[in-house]
Amino acid sequence: MKKVLGLAAAGLLAFSAANAGTITVANSDLTLYGAVTAGFEAQDNDLLNTGKNNDTFRLYNVIVGLTKKADPNSPIGFNVAFGQFEVPTVLASADVVNAGAGLIELGKTNDNFKPWLATVDIVPIDGLKISGGILWSKYGEKPVTFLNPHIARGLMFVLFNPVVYTGARAEYNINLPGLGNVEVYAGYNQANGLFQQGVSDAYELGISGELNLGAKIKYGLHYYDEAGGRNIWTLCLKSDFGLIKGGLQYSYVSKDDKIETPDTKDSYWGLGINFNISLLDAAIANVEVPMRLEYVKLDSDGTDADTSEDKIWSFTITPTWKPTKNTFLRAEYTYTKADSKIFTELDPPNANKDTRSTYAIEAGFLF
User: What's phi and psi for 263, nearest 5 deg?
Assistant: First the structure.
């Protein structure tokens, strides 16, 4: 049984890598992985009134993947994951995300079984990997629920992460004195991810590594540039203190002239803080309690004044039970507050509201 290092690097199915099975096909060792998760969710308000119930059962994920790791001895490999999944967020339900044509330009995530990660990987020398196909963003929460500590994606995911797109990326790992192993990457993509309507080209650059400052701190600096769209700068920090794990994401967006509008500023920013009380890693119990606090300053009033309807904050807590290394059961509560009444009450009289609460349960099996 082989660990799927290529998957971890791609950000897919890190939960199930240790449980993946190896299949020999035409003299090649392929690694099979995947997950099935389902649950129930309820909400009081939504971003739009889609006419759906305010509570519903969900098949959150059905994912099946195969991978063949590339290395200098076998320099061409691949990684492909087929499936369908729901994308609930703290701002909007999965029904809103997949309403109409869907918010992701690659299509709806829940309408049929199709590839959502598919790359051909070339490793000509140690440390260098070139990938092309359907890629995932190098930072932030992942598209599927079971790869994240929370069920609902947060504000930082919705407003600062292109998430998934078709393109090519080169990654290079190098060991630097005093800095240890550092990864740098650069890529080009067709900007067909989340909230990328009207954009056809984008470029990305980034660096990540680990610093030992008394405690080990993992860091990432990322830049994503849409031609005629957003320019996204992101800093990510993460540390593990045993019982408590913590992380931070700060993102800043400036807008190109093409998408500026008179009633908004040409920039906005957000901050997300995550911490996880892990009784599992502390060998106390098979329980974790992830929490997330996020704040976004949209400056929709067009001024620097911290006054008008331009701020959103959100809190999420997701107690999780992991009876085995490849199963989980979790419950979640989210609360989101906006300056303006951006939400719609789902029950009569369908009034506009400035808050949204959600409740969810998800159970999953990883393989």
Answer: -95, 10
